[in-house]
Each structure stands twice: as structure tokens, then as C-alpha cells.
Design a protein that fits this description.
This protein is α+β, with helices and mostly antiparallel strands and 179 residues long. The chain is built from two helices and five strands, in the order ααβββββ. The chain has a three-stranded mixed sheet, with no helix packed on it. A two-stranded antiparallel sheet has the order 3-4. Helix 1 (33-93) packs antiparallel against helix 2. The protein is elongated. It starts with 32 loop residues before the first helix and ends with a strand. Residues 10-22 and 24-28 have low confidence and may be disordered.
Length: 179
Amino acid sequence: MSERGERTDEFVDAEPAEAEPADEPAGTGDDGPAAGAAARIAELEDQRLRALAELDNMRKRCARQVSEARERAQAEVAERWLPVVDNLDRALDHTQADPGSIVDGITAVRRQALDLLAGLGFPRRDDLGTSFDPNRHEAVATRPDPEAPEGSVVEVVRPGYGDGGRQLRPAQVIVAKAG
């Protein structure tokens, strides 16, 4: 019909076109909102799986890097100890020499080893006469000592190495007690 209500002879399609709902994305097919949601779920699942794979790869890469760093650090420390071992070998080669020179050589190698430990951040501590500290000392015994204040270290059985929060091992000590 025309605007005036009159009939026109124009051909009209017998089947009216279905309009897509306004809330559905275009091109989702005949399933309506469910098809759009399923596609979005599939997309999100794909993103989740990719993120998990990426996380797993990152975890493996970090573990490999930590392992490599540990190996480098071990090799670096071992390399620093090689001169000490070389000097011990030289001292053993001279066992027929003058005993005084052997003692001097061993004393020099010991000093070299202590310097190496200090260079690595673990200096040997002199705990004799200090107050007992359970964070730095391991008490192996107590004994009366009228000359030493109670609770002080009167003998070091095994020295400790390291300072502050970087302690290689605590000192084993004998602590003064009241007589």
C-alpha cells in the first residue's frame, strides 16, 4: 500500500526477514546468545591454556637459570680454593725438608685459606671473652672461672665464621658460670 492507503502492484517477499536481536553480536548464527557465549568461553579457555603454558615455560626457565647460577657460583668458589690446594700439594712435596720450613709453609696456607673465607664474606671470628650469644655461639659446656664474667666465652672449641646475618657456622664455646 502507498502512503495514502492505496494498493500498489510492487512485488513483496512472502517470507519476512528475521531481525537479529539487539544484544547478540552479528554473525553468530541461528543459535542466538548461547552460540555467542560458547564462542566467548572457547576464546577465554584458549587464553587460559596459553597463560598456563607460558607460566610453565617461565617456571622451567627460572629453574634452569637458578641451576646455572648455582653451578657458576660453585665453580667460582672452587676456583678460588685451587691455589690453597696447590700450596698444600707443594707443602706435601717438601716433607723431607726442614720441619721449620714445613710449619711456615702450612701457616702461610692456613692464612691464605682464612683470607679466602673472609673474601667470600665469612671471616673467622675471635669469640674468646665475648658474651655468650645463642645466635653466634653453640655452648658445648660451662665451667667455673673466677676471672671471667658469668656468661662469657672462656674457651673456643671450634671457631665460628661469618658476621651479622651471614654466618657460615656458629662457634662451639665453653661458657663461664658462677663458681
